[in-house]
Amino acid sequence: MNNFATWMESKLSGPMTKLSNQRHLLAIRDGVISALPFIIFGSFFLIFATPPLPESWAITQWATAHAEQILIPYRMTMFIMSLYIVFGIGYNLAKSYDLDPLSAAQLSTAAFLLTISPTMDKDLGFVLPMTNLGGHGLFVAMFVAIFSVETYRLCKNKNITIKMPPQVPPSVSRSFESLIPVVFVLGAMSIITVAFQLDLHMLVDKIVGPLVFAGDTLPGVLVPVFLTTFFWSFGIHGMSIVGTIERPLWEVYLAKNAEAHAAGEPLPHIAPETFFQWFVWIGGAGATLGLVICILLFAKSQFLKKFGKAVSIPSLFNINEPVIFGLPIVLNPIMVIPFIIIPIVLTIITYIATWLGLVNATSVMAPWTLPAPIGAYLATGGDWRAIILVLFNIAVSVIIYFPFFKMYDRKMVLEESGESKEEIEKDMKEGN
After folding, report:
1. How far apart are the C-alpha atoms of 221 and 219, rounded to whole Å?
2. Residue 335: phi, psi to the nearest 5?
3. Domain assignment present for 48
4. Do 297 and 189 sit in the same domain of this protein?
5. 152, 158, 214, 287: least buried by Cβ within 10 Å?
6. DSSP for residue 328
7. How many structural domains is the chain composed of?
8. 3-state secondary structure of 320
9. What is the per-residue DSSP string for 54-117?
């Protein structure tokens, strides 16, 4: 195990860390995360518009009759998430280059809006279609933000900007400094979308369509689950690497599910990020709530008894770094095995259950610190079966963790008794 860990550290840790810290990927990650408060807020209005209550109840009938009004906050937040995200990506990428982040964010937003072709309504005049402002436009938003900021940076590095005298206020100087980049970027976007009438959203759909499809298949779902726990096993923050790459795809799935939910249509995707959050990462990466339950109920080691009490509350709210590094699970040859296996098993169970219609797919972004049964109930739009599935998955994780926990507990008891390393290894082999 130690030799393999050394190899991992020398061969994979560096490249993976560089990948997770890549400037553009970080900007995309931070841009998406910056929109989460709006997405979470808007998501709850999906529940308010379709309350998980009997249809005969007066409140349900009232919500159905006023659904269009109730959904307005959703349509102004989650339904146009790409507008918030393109601003966030442009801001964070410019900040990493030490450019004026506000000017770059505004430029990115304006360039993105040029990709949204307005239509003419005889009563309303020019109307901006909202379809591509939501999750459907997320990949175009990422491309446009990067293009805008890189053009801005190129202009500044090559001194293709308007320089104002020192006595001019800084805010005015920044505005004029960004004028030429604005002309280049918006001019290019106008030529592409207006003169050539090229629909970037349709083009990107054709390019990333296979990726969107593959990421929602069972193999496509299992890959990030395995990689997340695999990296965590060596002390590398798995989600910071996997999530940086996968999160834009997960956001697309969630947005399309939310749009279908609001329209009363079948949900098209099984595996947004909320699929993993509530049904796989129960208690945190590795579904360690099951391990904590084993410790609380069955530990004989004095250390584990105290440890279980200390980490029980954080684990309930999906904070499990104390378990990963305190038990530890990192570089622990006994506990690493179930830590990797259990999420794979839970993913398969949940994927099949969702595919068969035994539980609703997720369409609501609930705060990740909620206890899993509550979070799953909200994320599925109030499906009580989600609570049953979470409890079933917890039971599965307890069952799989138990024999490995007992082995580790026995090892800890022997260490506490003062036995030497050689005696402990002998007793472990003999099963004493």
Report:
1. 5
2. -85, -20
3. no
4. no
5. 158
6. T
7. 2
8. coil
9. -TTSHHHHHHHHTHHHHTHHHHTTGGGHHHHHHHHHHHHHHHHTTS-HHHHHHHHHHHHHTTS-
Which of 282, 316, 381 lies closest to 46, judged by CA? Answer: 381
Q: How many residues does the chain have?
A: 432
- Domain extent for 92: 2-34+77-215
Separation CA 76–CA 81 (nearest Å): 8
256 and 397 both lie in a single domain: yes
Q: Which of 158, 191, 215 is the last residue of a domain?
A: 215
What is the number of alpha carbons within 13 Å of residue 7 lying toward its C-beta?
Answer: 4
Which residue is associated with the tokens 């993913």? 347
Among candidate residues 130, 427, 431, the one with its CA nearest the CA of residue 262: 130
| 259 in the same domain as 301 | yes
Q: Which amino acid is at 347?
A: T
> Do both 232 and 210 map to the same domain?
no
User: Looking at the DSSP assignment, which residues form a beta bridge with residue 125?
Assistant: 121
Full pLDDT tens readout for the chain, 432 residues? 445 555 555 555 566 667 667 888 889 888 988 888 898 888 888 888 888 777 778 888 898 888 889 889 988 988 898 999 999 999 999 999 999 999 999 999 999 999 987 777 777 777 888 888 888 888 899 999 999 999 999 998 888 888 777 777 777 777 788 889 999 999 999 998 887 888 888 888 888 778 888 888 999 999 999 999 988 887 777 787 888 788 888 988 999 999 898 888 899 999 999 999 999 999 988 999 999 999 999 999 898 999 899 989 989 998 888 888 888 888 788 889 999 999 999 999 999 999 999 999 999 988 888 899 999 999 998 899 999 999 999 999 999 999 999 988 888 888 877 655 555 555 555 555
- The whole-angstrom separation of Cα 363 and Cα 96 is 33
Q: Is 161 exposed, middle or buried (0-12, 13-18, 19+ CB in 10 A)?
A: middle
Burial of 222 (C-beta count, 10 Å sphere; 0-12/13-18/19+): middle
Residue 181 lies in a domain: yes
Domain match, 234 and 207 both = no
**Statement to judge: residues 375 and 415 lie in one domain:** yes
User: Nearest Cα to 384, choosing from 52, 75, 102?
Assistant: 52
